[in-house]
Amino acid sequence: xxxxxxxxxxxxxxxxxxxxxxxxxxxxxxxxxxxxxxxxxxxxxxxxxxxxxxxxxxxxxxxxxxxxxxxxxxxxxxxxxxxxxxxxxxxxxxxxxxxxxxxxxxxxxxxxxxxxxxxxxxxxxxxxxxxxxxxxxxxxxxxxxxxxxxxxxxxxxxxxxxxxxxxxxxxxxxxxxxxxxxxxxxxxxxxxxxxxxxxxxxxxxxxxxxxxxxxxxxxxxxxxxxxxxxxxxxxxxxxxxxxxxxxxxxxxxxxxxxxxxxxxxxxxxxxxxxxxxxxxxxxxxxxxxxxxxxxxxxxxxxxxxxxxxxxxxxx
Length: 315
Known about the structure:
This protein folds into 2 domains: 27-66; 67-312. Strand 1 and strand 2 form a beta hairpin. The chain is of the alpha/beta class. Helix 1 packs across helix 2 (45-52), helix 1 packs across helix 3 and helix 2 runs antiparallel to helix 3 (56-66). The protein has helices spanning 30-41, 45-52, 56-66, 75-82, 163-171, 225-238, 262-269, 283-292, 299-312, and strands spanning 11-12, 19-20, 70-71, 95-99, 117-121, 155-159, 184-189, 213-218, 244-249, 273-277. This is F-box domain-containing protein.
């Protein structure tokens, strides 16, 4: 059988030790190793999960990519993501988008001790869960977000917001609710939860003693301007540290389909109200994109720049 010729790696001679032209990965300096792993892990979540299992160093380097922003519909996904591959992974989750129901997390959410940005889809409990499975009294549909919690994110967005959930946050309020350290709150109104003429949204702003930024985002052209103004007025009256109020229109044409006395809101708020238009058709996708980009270019930053520009412009 003929011999298979293999070319030997060419060596490079310098003033000192001899180096191979094809060094082993372990021969690279630690910072170069980390850079290579981070680039590889950033290609896809699946690739990052594979690298996470290689070693403790790989696990440490890939965690920021894996847990940068987590979006899930069921508690099973959070369990599968962290329990087997990385039992300590929960503590690295900083941004999380979840769907609300009484058995949302099986207490897994409580392990996300460093959670700062939380998106909630549907505050109303899922009716598919039997009352016997609910951790709350059978005669109530208490919001899970009002209960005692070990996590306290500073930025909370409630998508498809509804009146029922807001009432329950106030009724079943616990001093250690996840809202206790909330500084930035956004209420997103979709086609299923828009404000109809004559209706009101009565969020318990008085519970959020640290709230400095409040936003209402619209995905439909059906809200009642008077109800929106009442909500803004209530936020300004009850949240004593409020500095910025944002009205975000998800679609370009929405702001022209109903009249809002923006000048009056500016007057009563001390010029704290900012109206913005989004370039995205979905507020959820826009939120996820901003979170995945390390929270750069968000509506809060846009609003701050707008207010700063106003202050610099003589009236």
